[in-house]
Automatic annotation (TrEMBL):
E.C. numbers: 3.1.2.20
Source organism, top-level taxon: Bacteria
SUPFAM superfamilies per UniProt: Thioesterase/thiol ester dehydrase-isomerase
Protein name: Acyl-CoA thioesterase
Matching PANTHER family: ACYL COENZYME A THIOESTER HYDROLASE, CYTOSOLIC ACYL COENZYME A THIOESTER HYDROLASE
Residues annotated as domain HotDog ACOT-type: 6-119
Organismal lineage: Bacteria, Bacillati, Bacillota, Bacilli, Bacillales
UniProt keyword Zinc, yes or no: no
Length: 169
């Protein structure tokens, strides 16, 4: 079974309020990362129609500060699938409402979610049908990003053993 990429498209829009901001009056990076994980999880559930967990988050590139009073817009969709894994792109924009046209790319990230069955075992997910050429490019280049993650995971196995012991031993 295959599903269009647009079927997982998810948008989250929030006001940036004082409790969301740091002493520079800009959105906390950690708060933005929580928003990214949340919107990506919804996109993954829309594609798989199953339980999902975050397996990994690639780097988050913070490109522009998002100021108090701005509106933050997160767009997410599934951009590549494996057997049970789904790569999700989250694109973050900021908008100053008083200045309607001023919408800027503020951050982006790729995350990997894994679909799980009721016993919490990895579950096969539908394949993807790209809606247009840009989305096709994202799907085609997804295999290379997935390969990078596999290599990183291999390398992190050694770190896993290292971190399993007390740092001060
Ligand atoms: C929405 C949330 O906030 S969830 C909370 C945070 N997340 C968690 O607690 C998840 C904890 N981790 C886990 O439960 C497990 O490690 C899992 C489910 C992610 C993977 O389980 P494993 O037993 O390693 O499964 P397995 O090796 O069969 O891999 C399943 C798939 O996950 C992919 N995968 C596993 N680990 C990673 C990773 N770190 N990064 C990217 N992909 C991964 C595999 O490539 C495989 O993909 P495929 O089926 O498309 O080929």
């Amino acid at each position: 079974m295959e599903k269009k990429m647009s079927e997982s498209y998810t948008v989250k829009t929030s006001n940036v309020m004082p409790p969301d901001t740091n002493n520079h009056h800009t959105l906390y990076g950690g708060r933005l990362m929580a928003y990214i994980d949340d919107v990506a999880a919804i996109a993954a559930r829309r594609h798989s129609r199953s339980k999902v967990v975050t397996a990994s988050i690639d780097s988050v590139d913070f490109l522009e500060p998002i100021h108090l009073g701005d509106v933050v817009i997160l767009e997410a969709l599934v951009t590549h699938t494996g057997k049970s894994s789904m790569e999700i792109l989250v694109k973050v924009s900021k908008e100053t409402l008083e200045n309607g046209t001023d919408k800027k790319l503020a951050a982006f990230s790729f995350l990997t979610f894994v679909a799980l069955d009721d016993d919490l075992n990895p579950l096969e997910v539908p394949g993807l049908i790209p809606d247009n050429e840009r989305l096709k490019w994202l799907d085609e280049t997804g295999e290379e990003r997935s390969e990078h993650r596999r290599h990183r995971r291999e390398r992190s196995k050694a770190l896993r053993e290292f971190f399993a012991t007390d740092l001060f031993d």
